Amino acid sequence: MTLDYFYGQAGELFSFYRIPKALFQEQRFQNLSTDAKTLYGILLDRMSLSVKNGWLDEQNRVFIIFTIEDVKRALCCADNKATKLLRELEKFGLIERKRRGLGKPSLVYVKNFSAESSKSIFQNRDFHDSGGFKNASQDPSKSRCNKTKENDTEMSETDPFYSEEADGMSKRTQLEEYFSQALEVDLLLRLCPDDEDTIYQIVDLLVDTCATNRKLLHIAGDDKPAEVVRSRFMKLNADHIHFVLKCLAENSSPIRNMKQYLLASLYNAPTTMQLFYQNQTNHDLAMRR
């Protein structure tokens, strides 16, 4: 196919997505992928439509509705790529998603990258998800914990994530990719679409916990060696997460500290899930008799 040239002012006849130069020039955005920058430009373009339609919340903030399916159509990509790009923009503080539940799509707030307030996310990575989690990597620490007998039994001998950077990837990025695959996040999102925010909060919590330099972590009322917790978390799979979501949905008691509740649930998930299904099987067998 041979395309024609632009002549005169012909280029101005077309509409374009505008991607801020700051996303390419400023140091804080240097690790933001080009696809994510492109998506941000598309979301900015959609903002103008929201303004015209008067889509404002109680605080007069403009929001848009842009689902994973919309991302897939806009960038001609698959589910996992669309999901990853939205999460990437969230981590850089460029968007914020608010879950509404009841099968309704989340509201997307496109953040003002030029505002001074946006710089705070790189100083204290506090994400504004519905669970209100704080990044565990903020916890100060200078050394790794010493091995104990419990460490010897639960820690894996190989540890591909200990180096701060390996193959050009940061430790946190490696952990994010590891959990995305190990937990089959794309599958979980399809099976539990109403739990999208919770699933992402769980992944963030697992990454934060495994990336921390603290010696001890407070889980289920006890201080446990961080390496033991980390080793157990890295053995979790999609079945464990699905079980935790099920328990969370069936819990009728108020949860005062969601972060600690999830930490305990995730830590105990392998044992609790096995006992739960074993008891369920025993019950079914007894009923048949």
From TrEMBL:
Region Disordered, annotated ranges: 129-165
Xref: Pfam families: DUF6017, RepA_N
Coiled coil residues, start to end: none
Domain of life: Bacteria
Biased segments, Acidic residues type: 153-165
Replication initiator A N-terminal domain sequence ranges: 15-89
DUF6017 domain location: 167-286
InterPro entries, per the entry: DUF6017, RepA_N
Protein name, UniProt field: Replication initiator A domain-containing protein
Native species: Faecalibacterium hattorii
